[in-house]
Amino acid sequence: MEEKKIVYKLEKHELASERKERKERNLRRLLFVAICILCIWVGFSLGYLFNRAGGAEPQDITANQKMEQIKGYMESFWLYANDYEDLDETLSDKAFYGMTSFDYDPYTTYMSAEELDEFSSGINLNVVGIGISYAKYAGVPTVLRVFKDAPAEKAGIQEGDQLIKVDGVDVIDKTTDEIREMVLGEEGTNVTITIRREGEEMDLDITRAEVDVTVFAEAVDDVVVLSIYSFGDHSFEEVRHYLDAYPDYEKLIIDLRDNGGGYQTAVEDIASLFLKEGSVVMKLIYGDGSENISRTSGDVCYDNFKKIIILTNGNTASASEVLTLALREQHPNATIMGTTTYGKGVVQTTVSIRDGSALKITTSKWLSSKDVWINGEGIKPDVEVRQDDVIYMNYDEFPEGKEFDADQVDHVIKVAEAGLKYLDYEVERTDGYFPESLKATIAQYQQEHDLEVTSTLNAETYEAIISGIVREWNFNKDKDYQMNAALEAMREQP
Q1: Do residues 337 and 381 lie in contact, with contact meaning Cβ atoms separated by under 8 Å?
Q2: How far apart are CA 370 and CA 379, in angstroms?
Q3: Per-residue pLDDT for the chain (494 aa), expressed as one digit of tens each?
Q4: Distance of CA 351 to the CA centre of its chain
Q5: pTM, rounded to two decimals
Q6: Domain 390-479 belongs to what architecture?
């Protein structure tokens, strides 16, 4: 038989504390579900919005409508929108720069009104300032050229001086454009420039003035040396002014080194001073295949110069290359000396826009009188003459917080070694390795230039050496190997 079983149903009764915990748990679950639903709805809504903007349902719109739509999204959703005072104008400018940017044509570009003014001033060199050109060497703004009779020259600034402060404001870490804005100002106003020369800092008070110098000439023995810095609006008159002063000279050196070009009319007029009337300056070839031949005018020709040498380097470009080829191909006795030129064989036209901005656009390529196109190739000199190797080196910034000693290797050590050798100090090697013997050389340099004598290569010593290289190249004529070679070639002629 089977034993009879009795089952009792047991029920658990919640305590008050347990009921409270269950209610709170259910409330948290409810809130979690609600938040999930809200997130899904927001994500769907934003996704729908941006999918429509991204073309999920493409519609035909004009370019202007598209531009305005993009601007609207940028102004509404961009994280950094509030960082700009006029975001609409900034976005418009970026669009203009973008539509004129092409990898294969680096010369076509949109320019704001301010950039157009700087571009024109850069060609004409006619700005109200102090009359210097400068660049950053090893991260320090360094004077490369002081223009003749400019306020800077009168105040005593020299090539190789390092720009430390402008009106008491440190400029070491500022860009060259920022420094330019600080130096420029109204004519007759004063600016205080703090320079460092061979370790010594000095303040120079300079009165700003109009600087309009693109040409300089002087006689060296029986040779006229004509330096053309740029082909500006007044360069033709400047060249004539100097050449009129040397009517009995027969030998001419035209120095076009570091001349980046300028205006087409200027180079046409200057070529006319040395070539017969009707000579081909260049041939312009346009996109549709049409051609325009630029010729000399022949109003005046300085045919007293029987021998011409043109000095060139890697920064000789554009209009400078036009003049160089025109003279080599058509002057009866013209020679190119130096190194291969830049190689810019295209021409730009600047078109003004009503709001003051402009478009600089490549409109043609140019060929020489003998149909030579130098674009990307440059002009090889008839006689190659290089400067000292240190002139072509990259002057890297000195590593922050570093100091180099014996048995170390670095590119800045290589620059310092080459620089010290160029400055006529005894150097064992110039390959970037720091030999023990270099310590004595550095100590000697530091002592002679009022620097802290550490016998190690530090930032202060390195920057002083680079400044010294620039000064030596400009003031020690024996170190300008290209100019000396040109003068020597002139002396060999009867």
Answers
A1: yes
A2: 13
A3: 333 333 333 334 444 445 555 555 555 554 554 454 444 444 444 444 444 444 456 778 888 888 899 999 999 999 999 999 889 889 988 999 999 999 999 999 999 888 888 888 777 666 678 988 888 888 899 998 888 888 999 999 999 999 999 999 999 988 888 898 899 888 999 999 999 987 789 999 999 998 878 899 999 999 999 999 999 989 999 999 999 999 999 999 999 999 999 999 999 999 999 999 999 999 999 999 999 999 998 778 999 999 999 999 999 999 999 999 999 999 999 999 999 999 999 999 999 999 999 999 999 999 999 999 999 999 999 999 999 999 999 999 999 999 999 999 999 999 999 999 999 999 999 999 999 999 999 999 999 999 999 999 999 999 999 999 998 988 898 999 999 999 999 998 66
A4: 23
A5: 0.79
A6: Orthogonal Bundle (1.10)
Q: Is 401 left (phi over 0), alpha (psi -120 to 50) or beta?
A: left
Domain ranges of the chain: 65-76+84-101, 126-211, 214-384, 390-479
What fold characterizes domain 214-384?
A: 2-enoyl-CoA Hydratase; Chain A, domain 1 (3.90.226)
Tokens 């100091």 found at: 403
Rg of the chain over all Cα atoms, to the nearest angstrom: 34
